[in-house]
Design goal:
Blueprint: E1 4-10, E2 17-23, E3 25-29, H1 32-38, E4 42-54, E5 59-63, E6 68-73, E7 79-84, E8 89-93, E9 104-109, E10 125-127, H2 129-137
The structure holds zinc ion (ZN) (2 copies).
Amino acid sequence: MAQVRSATGRCLCGNVTVSLALADRFDVCHCSTCRRWGGGPMFAVEADGEVRFDGADHIEVFESSDWAERGFCRHCGTHLFYRLKEPVHYALPVGLLDDPGALRFDKEIFVDEQPDSYSFAGDRRRMTGEEVFEEFQAGTRDDPQEST
Ligand SMILES: [Zn+2]
Ligand SMILES: [Zn+2]
């Protein structure tokens, strides 16, 4: 299994800082919601348990689907999290981290929504949206945050 370590991060303006535990890997989501939100695919680390935000009153939350919300800093617009509502689970943009370290590019999801105009080099697990939902519903609980 991946190593779990603690990490810190912050938004561009510094009003929001975050600390969390995470595995040493990240995923990329190609879904249209992530691309519309961020202007490109989302590079995300999965939080292991609690995520602590300082400056929470600077966070704006947008409900992006029936099951998930996305948070951002209301001053500088930095994207802070993707959050599953039930059970609560966080994925955070890799770019927030003060020290991204040697994160491993673990997998790509929603590849069925990926535009033809770009692709990433290298081999890794690639899952369609349907496969992501199936795995989540099967209760494997491996990477439950991975839905649009
Ligand atoms: Zn900010
Ligand atoms: Zn997505």
